[in-house]
Design a protein that fits this description.
Length: 204
């Protein structure tokens, strides 16, 4: 439809119609097309609604995450180890394509970088300094609905692997030694240690 046709249908001034159409075009809700020429002069500009599913419509990603976690628990011989590895690979990519291990990264810089990633993901992290035995306190779990579906056995190792992968991606001298889920109702704790001192995955 043309601007004038839309103005007639809606009872709005053509300038008002153009204003709203510009917004809808920018947001990808409406396409602007040129009509086939009919005689001399410029062909009229027409607008049509974009036919697609609404990306802002109802979302149940939590159900998908729960289904995948349940599959991992049910069918993997070592769900925690697999989840940790998935998290590690995920975490390694969260600092961006330019991130790569480099020498000279100190503990404080590494902790700051990783807590920034955790903050972007919604963990609400609090770092406790830069000494051996430090912790990163997580005040929120963005995957709480999956945890509450009794799938903590894979979600918490995933978090630990995510942090380990992020530390590894920048060549940090520190990593996550162990995770302490829900030490308090609103608090999970990631315990940090020098890289050389960390052994197998531990979540307790």
């Amino acid at each position: 439809m043309t601007v004038q046709e839309l103005a007639t249908r809606t009872g709005l001034h053509p300038n008002t119609v153009r204003f709203h159409l510009d917004i809808l075009v920018r947001e990808g809700q409406v396409d602007q097309v040129s009509a086939a020429p009919r005689g001399p002069g410029r062909p009229s500009t027409r607008y049509r609604a974009v036919r697609r599913m609404d990306p802002n419509g109802p979302s149940r990603v939590d159900l998908l995450a729960t289904a995948l976690a349940e599959h991992l628990v049910r069918d993997s011989p070592d769900p925690a180890a697999v989840a940790t590895d998935i998290g590690r690979r995920w975490g390694a990519g969260l600092l961006g394509p330019s991130a790569s291990p480099r020498s000279g990264v100190d503990r404080g810089e590494a902790v700051t970088a990783v807590t920034s990633v955790l903050a972007d993901l919604g963990f609400v992290p609090e770092a406790d300094g830069a000494q051996d035995g430090d912790t990163v306190r997580l005040r929120h779990c963005p995957f709480l609905s999956v945890v509450e579906a009794d799938l903590r056995a894979v979600v918490c190792p995933l978090h630990m692997g995510l942090m380990r992968g992020a530390f590894e991606a920048i060549g940090a001298p520190v990593t996550v030694d162990r995770m302490e889920p829900f030490r308090e109702p609103d608090l999970c704790v990631a315990h940090l240690a020098p890289l050389a001192a960390v052994g197998q995955e531990v979540v307790r």
